[in-house]
Amino acid sequence: MELFSSIVSIRWSDLDPNYHVRHSAYYDWGAQQRVEVLNNLGLSMRVMQENNFGPILFREECVFRKEIHMGDHITISLSMKSVNEDGSRWTMQHLLTNQKGDLCATITIDGAWIDTIKRKLANPTPGVVIETMKKFPQLA
Q1: Beta bridge mates, 78
Q2: Which Gene3D superfamilies match (predicted)?
Q3: CATH code at 31?
């Protein structure tokens, strides 16, 4: 299965005083892409809100390999690195590549689902969650 990919538009506000992309912009891009992918797979913010659950991150790590500058064309790809049997805990990975195909950064996140009322880890709708998580391409 192919990775979920999208093109990142680099904005002036994404730059730091050294004229390359500031570190926190990478995390913003990853978060936005994850929300969009979940939404496209049927696990929308509305579904999560109606069922009182949402994603929570334990770890988010970015390894920076090449600078990204204004004018670069960046593709960000998302895949599932690992997921437990019921879909309640998972690790996802984003690969950010430039127009030459060079790997610029890797973002790895470990997460789970939280019950937004009880404020505890939960898998309130295991059928929906696991079916959605199975739709992700698996990282080899």
Answers
A1: 4, 94
A2: Hotdog Thioesterase
A3: 3.10.129.10
